[in-house]
Amino acid sequence: MDFHYSHLQENYEIMNEKKYLIRFYYIGKKKYYGTQRQSPDILTIEQCLIEALIKRNYMQEPRSAKFELASRTDRGVSARAACFSFFSMRTPILMELNSILPPSIGLYSFCEVPKNFSSRHDAIMRHYKYIVPIPLSIFKKEKELNLDMMRQACNALKGRHNFVNFHKWGKEKVNTVRDLEVASMEVISDFIVFDFKSQGFLRQQVRRMVKKILEVGMGLIKFDDFLELFNPEKGISYQPADPVGLILWDILYNPDIKFRQDPKSLKRMKRYFQTHYLKYRHRALLFSLLEQGNARK
User: Fold this and answer.
1) 107 shares a domain with 87
2) Given a cut of 90, is residue 225 above it in pLDDT?
3) Running DSSP on this structure, what letter comes out for residue 42?
4) Where in the sequence is the domain holding 236, given as residue range(s)?
5) Are 73 and 158 within one domain?
6) Exposed, middle or buried: residue 118 (CB in 10 Å: 0-12, 13-18, 19+)?
7) Has residue 248 been placed in a domain?
8) Are 285 and 123 in contact, with CB atoms under 8 Å apart?
9) How confident is the model at residue 1 (pLDDT cuts 50, 70, 90)?
10) What's the first-to-final CA gap in the chain, in angstroms?
11) DSSP H or E run through 78
């Protein structure tokens, strides 16, 4: 088939297909090397989704179906409400897809969108949460932690800044100016939880902001040094916070985008979360009792 005919056929097929936006969750297990597709022998979230869509005959291949993830995350990061869009050959049946996806990935709502809609570029707000992996009570036994100074650092991050020193450099040249609408922290059940909201984030931006906020709280850097990170003339290199604590919490779109939830898929998702909550709660108690028992000897 020559290129011209192939291109015409592809456009004809898209004109006769509907575009859908699907919301899904995933848990950043070690076996997944982030969301973005890489080589065929490297497992990613995107690869699992594409294979399920092809196997269930929703699309033939990602390029012609205009498959697009709304956000990309690194290895170890989880998501509560990630999204992707694509041209489908038929109306999605979410449980049909969930039945061949691993339990750590699940689709639970969808809607039809205009053909020129972009799950990535049409997002008006992205919300990330970061849970510091170490309980606050344990953290304080090891190091002093000034929560008030950490809140001041959060406030300094809000607004429009050049976040060049809060992102990982890549091959592509990107605009590092961003508007951060929300940067806040609270303590929930003995864990420090951060919330960040912006239309778009740079690669590793959230994890790097968290790293520096914690350093301010521990007194490892002065507040004035933290403010120097906004100076684009200074190149400051450091490792980001652990990806395990990061969650893509939500992606917001125009109010006209109304997701339709699938009850069976929601039930599957909640059952998975509850099972693992009870499992790890039990293990936490087990090791707590073992620690206390050894301390008494």
Assistant:
1) yes
2) yes
3) S
4) 134-241
5) no
6) middle
7) no
8) no
9) very low
10) 78
11) strand 78-88
